[in-house]
Amino acid sequence: MTRKLNSLQKGLRVFLIILSAVSVLSLTVSAIAESSRNKKIQNDRDKIRKGFETILEQLEFNGLNDATIESVKKYRELVGDYSNLIVTDNAGKVLYNANNGFMPETDQFIVLINPDSLYPNDAYILDSKLNVRYKIILNRTYNGVKLVEYSKIYQDNQKLYDVIRYNEIFLSDTMDKNMHYAYIGSKGWNVYSIQKNISYSDYNYSNWHLAANSIGITAFVLFWLSLPIWVFLDAKRRNHMPALWGILTAVTNIVGLIIYILTRPENPTCKSCGELLNTKHIYCPYCGSENKQICHSCRTVLEKNWLACPNCGRKIEGERPETLLIVDGMDNNP
Ligand SMILES: [Zn+2]
Ligand SMILES: [Zn+2]
After folding, report:
1. Cβ(156)–Cβ(150) under 8 Å?
2. Confidence category of residue 90, pLDDT binned at 50, 70, 90
3. 102-161 pLDDT per residue, tens
């Protein structure tokens, strides 16, 4: 039984080394892939922001001329087809609308900015024909806005304000149907760029990235689950509170392992086969070889530099355990 446990422990050790190597390697690969992906996303975001800023500059210096509309087209190529770009004056009148699907046609909008000073970051685009309200939350940190699409029936424009207030109180963000991202700029103009979540192919995780990630996590979980078993078996061999150390390692993993390795009793190993021995063992329980010198008359355990047995007086003549094994044909394993 002990021998079986020992080979199980040895197998486990190999398994644990492989698992930790696989886990570290896969997670490193995955982290590198993740960081290059983030870089790509950041690059795209920068491009989009630059494109938007170009539109703002064009509007400021040239007004809404052909060059501005050319910038708008370039910008929309960056953010993807499924996007809208709306230019209004400060009163909210729509001056230009590049529309692609999920927003109503030009002139059907009413854009309300800061309808309530309590919510200075909120703006609304409303379409009375479709009974749709788009709520925009301005994000000042990167000159962007988050658009939240609502559907809500309302009667006439006089009651719009009440509807907004009503929704503000009773609709939580969890009820939003879609999340869009947009930028807004204001220099006498209000420009709304609204699009569904941007999803370029670069944004997607590649298969090998996902594979490395799941292999790494799986190896880590297996490592976590197997480590306490190894500690339990090792502590059991040393007769050193195996259940306690097993549980401690199950909870704290590597921390528990390190504390265990540092504090476990250093048992002697067999000179012949290398197996771990109990301090009381005279003969190795695995290979039968003698690991302590004993007197061959009275079987007293002898210390290294003794010249005679203190019990029976028999002289010791530098006998080595291996020689003794052959001479006496040790068949009396404990
Ligand atoms: Zn041995
Ligand atoms: Zn003796």
Report:
1. no
2. low
3. 444 444 445 554 444 344 455 565 555 545 555 555 544 333 444 444 434 333 444 444
**What is the rounded CA–CA span in Å between residue 243 and residue 259?**
15
* Closest ligand, as measured to the CA of 295: 2
User: Domain limits of the chain?
Assistant: 2-30+212-263, 81-197, 273-334
Phi and psi torsions of 2, nearest 5° = -60, -40
The ligand that comes nearest to the alpha carbon of residue 277 is: 1
Single pTM value for the model? 0.56
Q: Could you read off the pLDDT of 26-49 as tens digits, one per residue?
A: 999 999 998 988 888 778 777 877
What is the C-alpha separation between 126 and 138, in angstroms, rounded?
16
Residue 101 per-residue DSSP state: S
Beta bridge partners of 245: none
**Site of tokens 């476990």:** 264
188 — pLDDT class (breaks 50, 70, 90)? low
Alpha helices in the chain (DSSP H): 2-62, 66-79, 160-170, 207-237, 242-252, 254-263, 321-328
The alpha carbon of 321 and the centre of ligand 1 are apart by a number of angstroms equal to 12
Ligand with an atom nearest the CA of residue 325: 1
CA dihedral 277, 281, 283, 289 (to 10 degrees): 30
* Ligand 1: centre distance to CA 275 (Å): 6
